[in-house]
Design brief:
Order of helices and strands: HEHHEHEHH
Shape: globular
Number of helices: 6
Largest sheet: 3 strands, parallel
CATH class: Alpha Beta
Strand order of the largest sheet: 1-2-3
Helix content: 40-55%
Radius of gyration: 16 Å
CATH architecture: 3-Layer(aba) Sandwich
Length: 137
Amino acid sequence: MRPCSPDYRSGGAVNVLVLFARVPPSATVLGLTAALLGALATPVAQRPTSTWELQRLIAAVHDRAVELIILDEAENLKSGRGDPRSDTCVAWLKILIKATRTPFVLAGTVAGAVAGIEGLLRYDTHLARLVLAHARL
């Protein structure tokens, strides 16, 4: 974590580059990657592979010095316990969190968040350990 600058302590403005993207319904790894690359104005390759696009996304996050990533509608990451598509998306998210070393905010609606995000953290204990805190607003 970066120490507070004198401008921050004196009440000056602080600019933080935030990457915001929505998790598409029935999310897939390529769909998630395309959403984040699109938010970074980075075009998706003609014939993308999940591994190649993930590496491009990680590089783009580092190159642009993104300091916070917000995934809205994160309840779409999990459509059911043991769903292979959901398990793959969660594995992708864990890799992205570790590789970028950037704070993530998983946001969603209350109805969706209870079943989705909180259920996701109960289902995947490794992901829960990567999340510093969770709150219901």
